[in-house]
Amino acid sequence: MKALWVSAHPDRGSLNCHLHQFGVRALHAEGWQVTESDLYAMDWDPVLREEGGADVETEQRKLADADLVVLQFPLWWYGMPAIMKGWIDRVFERGFAYDVMDPATGRARKYGDGGLVGRRALTIVTAGDRPGSLGPRGISGDIEDVLWPTLHGTLWYTGMSALRPHLITQARDVNASTIEGVERELADRLRSVADEEPIGFLPLDEEFYDHSIRLCEGVSPGLTGNAAHRFVT
User: What range does the record give for the signal peptide (predicted)?
Assistant: First the structure.
């Protein structure tokens, strides 16, 4: 089993950097081979000026070789740091991650299919606020809705199976007396990451969507918004 761990935090002494190192060790202990992309340490250029480049090709090879992709970052203004967004902008190129054509139909493969199909993707996110604020009734919205552009619009769009986010709240309050619990929860999550059920997003299929890419009548009755685009259990 091969994993690519992509992390983004500028402070080498941060909780994020500690959990990055801890998580890689935890995956190794479970038998994973782990390749790392520490974007700040790499001084990654996030600005898309033109497609391609040796640095992009290197990251694409890492992605192509991975069974699991971990994106680890602090939640800044309800999203990922610009350096990680720029990594996606540059590495998830047309013809590699998206706009990969299906020869049988002549259509682009997307939403459950695409250039990165067959890979699992786990987001590990730290946030300063309290747990309730990022829950179903929290002022910030549920974390899966907050990360909808990443989980559905990037990972699922390119064919990856998105797992529910691993959220660490009150990150600024984690200290020597509480870090062990945070580590234990992350280790437990990584131990089962190869087998856990992904988020049940609906695939782009005529069974679920009409030609305007709108949900068909009768699909997810009574539901609207992001929740409507999942299998109802």
Answer: none
